[in-house]
Structure formats: structure tokens, C-alpha cells
Design a protein that fits this description.
484 residues, mainly alpha, Fumarase C, Chain B, domain 1, Fumarase C, Chain A, domain 2, Ribonucleotide Reductase Protein R1, domain 1, 3 domains, two-stranded antiparallel ribbon, two-stranded parallel sheet, 18 helices, elongated
């Protein structure tokens, strides 16, 4: 027997139906969490007197044996319907039917699987945040190394105003910081104990859900048993957070693709992070950055896949919910690998200072500086805007730059401009004139770097504290260390 049901059936399960309905290829990856939750459930059954201390010790011994067997590759999961069946049936082989058969008392696979997913996701959120912090650190280091580099900033992909290259990098740092904050907030709703809901209505046995929550380091239990077994919002929310994260990764990848192209040549990518062409020997392609864009579709589709599965499902458990794991595992795997390679790619891009400096002379980047100077001299902004716009139109028509203006071109505003008026339109001096909080000025960039370093330290400290708590829970229940 390799399933946990069938006592009222007159026929065995059709082989094709069995192959169609089994989930073991996906949920086998939850074995650690299934064993962890089972150990906590066992300790609770002992505490409330449903099983004896001797029986509890024998069950816990069996769970530890199963963990070791799976870790060493000694278990073939293919005959089993799901990870819960594998664990319980193997436990009964180790501890005997009489003792091993008591573990499933007062629980259902319905609340058991949600517990496994919550334990899995609680851990993976910490891993994703950690990987985001590595990417943030790469952005911070690159910003620190290039604090003096000035480049064109763009709106509508048209030259707009001069900015520090470091300021542009820090924009992504804070973008990814929001991703961390979203995941931290999601973790609050993940970190809730569903076990004890049973199949849907709870149990008449005297279980202690708060004790299980304490053993597994959950701060609270889920309030409604029907909601507990059918809730997948926490997975949907996690996938939504990953989708936004990948939108950010995609934008960063696109900037690298653009900046490394000959049209810009703002960046050089280390050869180890590029590929060539099978037919064009001159090519150096930014494939890693392109893949960061491309993988966004896969993660976004994971959210869509689960959302469609959940749409219109009646309470409580329905077998449709088995389909929550493939998109969850797929998106988690892609996220962790993509963040790692994105951090390494960021470490291996190098700004071309000369190309950036040359590009500053294109597009009248300091036209707004002229407007703001006139405003400082008492000219209404709209009049200054119109006047500078007229100057730009004339210069552009004749292929000239703001530097080509002569004093007589200032017309009614000649008296407002000092002898060294050229400094007003100097692109590198433009960034130093900015004074608003969060601007591209060197002082503000320095401040943002310090804030970034503090945020990095805080994120890593939180993840470390979560991991310590989870590790202690595992060791107390399973009696040994495990990489969490």
C-alpha cells in the first residue's frame, strides 16, 4: 500500500489515474518540512496524553531515520502518492503499525500540506531577501567606486539632465529595498500555523495548537479551520512580490543591454558574462542581462497560474490546490538563481567614463539649469522656460550647443548673467548645484550610500535572527543540525 486512503473503495486506483493525480514529483521537495511538522505534532500528541512518552520517542526516532534516509538518497519516492504518504508509510515500517499509525491522529493531509508550504516559504523568503541584499551590495560598491562619474539622465529615453552614475545605480538599490520590505511584510502572513484545522472543521480531540505553534516558532495560529485548509493567499502574495522583483530585475537588465551597446557604450561587460555569435565573429552579446529580462515572464506566469487555479474555488479543500506547488517551486528556483547571477553581473560591469562624458554634450542637458538660474534672478519660471526653449530651438536648428551662445543672444536678460555664465551650463557642475533631498548631488549620493549600508545591515540581521529561531526549532524537534 502506497497511499493513505481507499478503505471504502471496492477497486484499486486505475494506473493512469494514479499517474495523473500523484504529486510526489513536486511535493517530495517538502520532505524536510513534512518531517519537521510531524515531529511537532508528535510532541503535542504526547503533551495532551493521546500518545505515551515511549510512543513519542519511537515516532521521533522513526522521523529522524526517514530524514537521514532521504538525505542519503536511500528512498525511492516514485511509488508514493505524495510526501505525506511516503513519511507515514515508511514510519509504520520503522516503528510498527501500532505506534506509527498513531501519528496522523487529529490531523489531515489538508492542514498538513499547508503547514509544509508555510514552513518552506518562511525559509525561502529569508533566502530571497539575502540574495537581494547581495545584489544591493554590488550596486552600493559600484556606486562607491564611481562617485565622480557624471552621465546623462533620461526621460522618454531622450537626454534630460546630468546625473551621477552612482545616483542611477542607487535608484535600483532603493527599488530592490522595496522588494525586501514587501517580502518581510508577506512573511508575517506566511508565519501562521494552520495545523489543527484537520480536514476542514477541526477535531474533537484535546489538541493544543498553541503548543505546536511554539514548537515550530509560529507567533500565532490561523483562526478559522475552513480558511486554514483552503488558504493559498500567502503563496499568491509571495509570487506577486517576486513578480514585482522581476520587473525591477528586468529594468536593470534592460539598462545594461542599452548601455553596453555601441549606440551608448556607457558600460563594458566582462567577457565572462557575455557570449558571441556562431556566425558573426565580432559580436559580444549581453546574454545574462537579456535572460534577466526573459525570465520575468516565467515568474509572472507563476502568479497568473496560481491565481487562475484559485479563481472560483468553493471552500474548502479541492484537489485543484495540488497545482499550487509547481508555480511556487518554479518561481522560487528562478528567483534565487537570477538574483545570484544579477549580483555577479553587477560586479562585472564597468563604466566607460569618456563615452559618458562625451554624451553629456548632446541634448542640451543643462537647459533646466538656465531656467533655474533665471528663476533665482526673479524671472517667473514659465517665462524662463519659454525663453530657454526658444534659445534651444534656434541652436538646434543651426547644429549648435548652449556653449555657442554669445552674450548678445541673452537679449532682455543680458544684465542677469555674470561673466562666468558658462559655469551655469557646465554638465559636471550641474550635479554639484543640486541641493534638494534625494537629488543627484555628491552630498546626497554620499548620504544615500550610508542609508543603503544601514539598510543592508538591518536586512541581514533580521534574516540571521529568523534563521537562528528556525534552526533551534528544527534541532529541538529533530535532534540534529540541518541547513535551513
Amino acid at each position: 500500500m502506497t497511499n493513505l486512503w481507499g478503505s471504502r473503495m471496492e477497486k484499486g486506483l486505475d494506473q493512469e489515474v494514479k499517474e495523473f493525480s500523484t504529486s510526489i514529483p513536486e511535493d517530495f521537495f517538502l520532505y524536510k518540512y513534512d518531517l519537521w511538522g510531524s515531529a511537532a505534532h508528535c510532541k503535542m500528541l504526547e503533551k495532551v496524553g493521546i500518545i505515551s512518552e515511549k510512543e513519542s520517542k519511537e515516532i521521533l526516532r522513526g522521523l529522524r531515520v526517514i530524514f537521514q534516509e532521504i538525505e542519503e538518497g536511500k528512498v525511492d519516492p516514485s511509488p508514493f502518492e505524495d510526501i505525506h504518504s511516503l513519511v507515514e508509510i515508511r514510519l509504520r515500517e520503522i516503528a510498527g503499525e501500532k505506534i506509527g499509525g498513531k501519528l496522523h491522529t487529529a490531523r489531515s493531509r489538508n492542514d498538513q500540506v499547508v503547514l509544509d508550504e508555510r514552513l518552506f516559504l518562511r525559509e525561502k523568503i529569508g533566502e530571497v531577501i539575502e540574495k537581494i541584499s547581495f545584489l544591493q551590495e554590488a550596486l552600493l560598491r559600484k556606486a562607491q567606486e564611481n562617485k565622480d562619474v557624471v552621465m546623462p539622465g533620461y526621460t522618454h529615453l531622450q537626454p534630460a539632465q546630468p546625473v551621477l552614475f552612482a545616483h542611477h545605480l542607487l535608484a535600483y538599490f532603493f527599488m530592490f529595498q522595496r522588494d525586501i520590505e514587501r517580502l518581510e511584510d508577506t512573511r508575517k502572513r506566511v508565519n501562521v500555523l494552520p495545523l489543527g484545522a484537520g480536514a476542514l472543521s477541526g477535531t474533537s480531540l484535546p489538541i493544543d495548537r498553541q503548543y505546536v505553534a511554539e514548537l515550530l516558532a509560529f507567533p500565532r495560529v490561523q483562526e478559522n479551520s475552513m480558511d486554514a485548509v483552503s488558504d493559498r493567499d500567502f503563496i499568491l502574495e509571495f509570487l506577486g512580490g517576486l513578480s514585482i522583483l522581476f520587473l525591477h530585475l528586468s529594468r536593470w537588465g534592460e539598462e545594461i543591454v542599452l548601455w553596453s551597446s555601441p549606440a551608448f557604450h556607457f558600460l563594458e561587460i566582462d567577457d565572462a558574462f557575455t557570449t558571441g555569435s556562431s556566425i558573426m565573429p565580432q559580436k559580444k552579446n549581453p546574454d545574462v542581462a537579456e535572460l534577466l529580462r526573459g525570465k520575468t515572464g516565467e515568474v509572472l506566469s507563476s502568479w497568473v497560474s496560481l491565481a487562475i487555479t484559485l479563481k472560483g474555488l468553493p471552500l474548502t479543500y479541492n484537489r485543484d490546490l495540488q497545482q499550487d506547488k509547481p508555480p511556487l517551486f518554479r518561481a522560487t528556483k528562478e528567483t534565487l538563481s537570477s538574483l545570484r547571477i544579477a549580483a555577479r553581473l553587477t560586479q562585472n560591469i564597468f563604466p566607460d567614463r569618456e563615452s559618458m562624458k562625451k554624451a553629456l554634450s548632446v541634448g542640451f542637458l543643462t537647459a533646466t539649469d538656465l531656467c533655474e538660474y533665471l528663476v533665482g534672478q526673479g524671472v517667473p519660471f514659465r517665462r524662463a522656460h519659454a525663453w530657454v526653449g526658444e534659445m534651444v530651438k534656434k541652436l538646434s536648428a543651426s547644429g549648435k550647443h548652449l556653449r555657442d551662445l554669445k552674450k548678445e543672444d541673452w537679449g532682455e536678460y543680458q544684465h542677469l548673467f555674470p561673466e562666468n555664465w558658462e559655469e551655469i551650463i557646465d554638465e559636471e557642475k550641474s550635479v554639484r548645484r543640486k541641493i534638494s533631498e534625494g537629488s543627484t548631488s555628491p552630498r546626497e549620493v554620499e548620504r544615500e550610500i550610508k542609508i543603503g549600508e544601514e539598510l543592508l545591515a538591518q536586512s541581514r540581521e533580521r534574516v540571521s535572527s529568523w534563521r537562528k529561531i528556525e534552526q533551534e526549532s528544527w534541532e529541538n524537534l529533530m535532534g540534529g543540525s540541518c541547513v535551513l
